[in-house]
Each structure stands twice: as structure tokens, then as C-alpha cells.
Amino acid sequence: EIPNLTWQEILLKAQQSVNNLKEPTIMKQLAHCLKTNVRVCRAIGHPFLTQLVKLFAHMMELYKWYSGLIAQEVSSHGAKATKYSHVRSMRIVKREILRLVQEFVQKSEDPDYVTNMFIPPLLEAILLDYKQSCADARDAQVL
Q1: At residue 43, does pLDDT exceed 80?
Q2: What H or E segment, with its residue span, contains residue 91?
Q3: DSSP 3-state helix, strand, coil percentages of the chain (rounded to 5)?
Q4: pLDDT tens-digit profile of 68-122?
Q5: How many CB atoms lie within 10 A of CB 53?
Q6: CB 103, CB 38: distance < 8 Å
Q7: C-beta separation of 90 from 27 below 8 A
Q8: pLDDT class for 17, splitting at 50, 70, 90?
Q9: Using CA atoms, how far apart are residues 116 and 90, in angstroms rounded to an integer?
Q10: CA pair distance 33, 62, nearest whole angstrom
């Protein structure tokens, strides 16, 4: 329950100002919430669908938003920006989003539902990001 409360608090802060999502502590908390959800998904499998439905739209928004910020950093500072700590933190959040979706897809007992509800927005966010990112900013996990 604590990761869910933390997730909600972060979303409220983001509503106040999207720039709150740039704070290192916020990115760390997001990564922790996502990692916790990966472990829960791995443990309970398909019943995790209820939780994923609550998180998914926000996860896609976060993925796109952090992708845009990373692209801005790389555009401004070149490929070396991928080594900056705040950019690494953004990439960790993105990676954990991918891990959570991947874990659920592997555990799902309803591939048609997954295909219809999760794959289209996921592909839209991830493939566009992958296409537009420089090689150093691409996550191999996407492939």
C-alpha cells in the first residue's frame, strides 16, 4: 500500500508542477514504486491486472515526458548528457516502466486483452522514443 500512496503523492506533485518530476528524490521514489510493482506482478501474476490498469496511463505519460527531457538534454549537451546523474535517473524510471509491462505480459493469462489494451499505447510511446533518440540514449531493453 505504501508504494501506491507514494505513487499518488508524486502524481499530485506533478499536477502542481510537472517540473517536480525532475527532482532526484521524486525520480528515485518513482523507480522504487515501479520496482516494487514488478516484484508484486512477478509474485501474483495475472491478478496484477487490477493494479496495472490503475498505473498504465500514468506510466505512459511518464515514459513520454522523461523521453522528451532526455532528448532535450542530449540535444543541448550531446551524447555525454546520457552520463549525467539526472538523465540516468530518468532512464531508470523508463527502464522500470518497461520491466513492469514486460513482467505483466509474461504473466498474463489473457493475451488478447494485453494486445488490445496495452500494446498500442506502449508501442506508440516506446517506438517513437527509440526512433528519435540518439544511439547513446536508447535502451537495449526496448528491443
Answers
A1: yes
A2: helix 85-107
A3: 90, 0, 10
A4: 999 899 989 988 999 999 999 999 999 999 999 999 999 999 999 999 999 899 8
A5: 11
A6: yes
A7: yes
A8: very high
A9: 28
A10: 13
CA distance 75 to 104: 34
Task: Return the amino acid letter for 7.
Answer: W
- pTM for the complete prediction? 0.89
Mean pLDDT of the chain: 91
Q: Is 110 exposed, middle or buried (0-12, 13-18, 19+ CB in 10 A)?
A: exposed
Largest Cα–Cα distance of the chain, in whole Å? 44
Cell 493475451 found at: 111
- Cell numbers representing residue 53 in the block: 490498469
| Cα angle for residues 65, 24, 64 (degrees, 5° grid) | 10
